[in-house]
Amino acid sequence: MAYNIIELNEKLTTELRVLAKEMGIRRPDAYKKEELIYKILDE
């Protein structure tokens, strides 16, 4: 599923970490919210 920056900004950091993990992004706990958003958008 494609996300946009507004949708991702509305999510909690913990939700973004779960999403990132599901997408196969390594070590999502190491990133701040803004970094996670851009990692997810890059996938």
TrEMBL record:
Indicate the segments forming the Rho termination factor-like N-terminal domain, all copies. Answer: 7-43
Which GO BP terms apply? DNA-templated transcription termination
Q: Known InterPro entries for this protein?
A: Rho-like_N (IPR011112), Rho_N_sf (IPR036269)
Q: What is this protein called?
A: Transcription termination factor Rho
Query: Which is an annotated Pfam family here?
Result: Rho_N
Q: Which domain of life is it from?
A: Bacteria
- The source organism is Proteiniphilum acetatigenes
